[in-house]
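quick one: flavin mononucleotide bound model?
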Amino acid sequence: MTRALLLSFSPHGKAAQTFKLARALLNEQVPDAHVTERDYGARALPPLTREYANALTTPGGLSGSATALSEQLIVELEACDLLVLCTPVHNFTVPAALKGWIDHVVRIERSFTVNAQFEKVGLLKDRRTFVLVSSGNVRKGHEPDFLTPYMTAILSTVGIRTVGFVYLGAMVRGAETVSRAVEQARRQLHETISSGL
Ligand SMILES: Cc1cc2nc3c(=O)[nH]c(=O)nc-3n(C[C@H](O)[C@H](O)[C@H](O)COP(=O)(O)O)c2cc1C
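yep, here:
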């Protein structure tokens, strides 16, 4: 049975177009999946504590209550074999809510390590991952895209390399444009999920 983890990083939470689309497609195409849904957008994770920052940057400091939330989020991630991240673009990049989740999940000597060449090496197993990206602007050529290369690099840092991006662009240009973008993304996701990624 597929165990899917469906996360929203939109201020609209589970009402975001990306989240609704992902949920509908999962229900349709992987009906027997066990789906865990989380809203980390409208109900953002707490900011990093001083204890957590110290735990991550002090040799041998990686235990105890300082890392409890981080541990919970990593365990939740480890438990899935299909990961779906639903996110808006905020100021050319990931929203603060998604960056917060990343700062809890990308943890030295837990989800990644550093080798003798000072390279970061992922400690999580790879899993099918989709990043559904909603933006006000059209996707290509009109403004910088820091989200795609950043998400590719940070997911790879923890070992997640099988990543597909699906873009819903021009989402502020009225209902007709929104439904066209959603339909296009639906077709793209449908094909990708059917083909096995
Ligand atoms: C704070 C903020 C910053 C934004 N920055 C961008 C941006 O840089 N580029 C863009 O295309 N859209 C930007 N938008 C528009 C959102 O990406 C767009 O409305 C998106 O569809 C929202 O998705 P959501 O409903 O899932 O949150 C921004 C919106 C907000 C609230």
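The first strand starts at residue 3 and ends at 8.
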